[in-house]
Amino acid sequence: MQIENVDVLIIGAGPSGSVAAGYLQQQGLHIKVVEKQKFPRVVVGESLIPRVMDHFEEAGLLDALNSYGFEKKLGARFIRGAEQCVFDFSEKFGEGWDWTWQIPRADFDQAMADELIRKGVDIQFETEVIDVEFMGTESTTVVKNKEGQEYAIHAEFLIDCSGYGRVLPRKLGLEAPSKLDPHSAIFTHIQDIRRPEGIEGTQISFDIIETEVWLWVIPFSNGYTSVGIVGPTAYIEKLSATLDNDEAIQNAIGLSDFYVNRFQGLPYAFDPIRLTNYSVSVSQFYGDGYALTGNSTEFLDPVFSSGVCFATESGILAAKLAKRQLAGEEVDWEKEYADYMKYGIDVFSTYVKEWYTGNLQELFYHRPENPEVKEKICAVLAGYVWNKENTFVSKHRNIIKNMAYLIKQQD
Q: Is 378 helix (H, G, I), strand (E, B) or coil?
């Protein structure tokens, strides 16, 4: 069998794999990316948060991405009946980017791949991982290309950025149940021919149908808008007695007083897609010769758009640590990688859980607003969940429920 030798093999060409590849290519390492799917492809994760801009910049992708004219995301709006809570990323606690993009992932991921290929990165699409064998920190990965030919790739280090494919978690038995309650989603892209002018037409919004049920609305610069319904799996299944995704998404739109007139009955770009019990986890984040990144490790919930942020955060960090290890440095993967990523995931997990308990919603809609509290929550929603100077990061486990309790007592 033909054997190819590389410094780092990256499995997956999504955001995590792209930033890892971009960073390592700039460092002069010999890398290869294998991607099972054919690009472009439709995937969820279309609302970014500002922290990702740091990663795109470090990976040398920012200028190219900026040239595509993706819709700018300056904040986010949360709607509950007649109430609205709007977060402006320029009014957050601490330093950091105050904008990002809302993007059709098929176009966005293709744009990243095109830029990497232009820079000389070897990306092999429609190439499936068949087997992986580790010899200490080195590995041999057998892959099969679109022609059905198998060959081996010997790597000094392997970064699994396979997302929902979860290549190494499946092959090494690392999968673990999520600590979050089971939720599901159905989404599609709608031709937004009734889009209002100005900020109302481009504002990304989350319309709360019930405490645990909400509709996402993500307008793109191409004239389409991503519309999805999220809720407990049993609730989502009841949107259509026959589990018909088209009927379910139309019924979901009908539940939104705010958006029903804008989206009801309009044509789709593709048949609605259902994601069932999407939250996942793993028992470990790394091992001898490999690191897991992005959705290969943990996927929480789309309510605060953290998915791509954790993907790129882990992708760029794994690349940096792998580069140091290959240069002969000692790397404490537990402290520098696993503990670091788990802290940010833990912070965001608290916000997801407290959203679904209703406690965080109490803070969002309490009037009059507390500007200091809002700035600190805004920083979390922007992805700066490692800034422990922010008390809504450092005290995340109790501060939301305690403040919600005080608000309820006052009422």
A: helix
